Known about the structure:
Blueprint: E1 3-7, H1 17-29, E2 37-42, H2 57-65, E3 69-72, H3 74-80, H4 92-101, E4 104-107
Parallel strand pairs: 1-2, 1-4, 2-3
Amino acid sequence: MTTVLILNNDSMGHGDSALGHRILKTLLQKSGALTDLTAICLYNAGVKLLAPDSPVLAELTLIQENGVDLLPCGTCLKHYGLTPPGVDPSTMDTILAEIDGAAKVVTI
């Protein structure tokens, strides 16, 4: 079974952004519990998580090094003026294919 995680914001939940960053960091640190995680799709403000000053960049880098694909929307990266090193921009076709092929899709 494959799992795809969707990150469409630069924090988790609504409300206090510092709290949202902290709990997202914890979630990503514990994402190894998702044994079938194959990809993380990032779009809209979610691509900001790949910025050099992102509070969760280290966690996302480690997740990628452990074999999980990071799929940031290329249009969104361009919109926010981001060019994250070590991560190729993705297309909506690729993101949709990941979602379509997944047994489980979790949106944060």
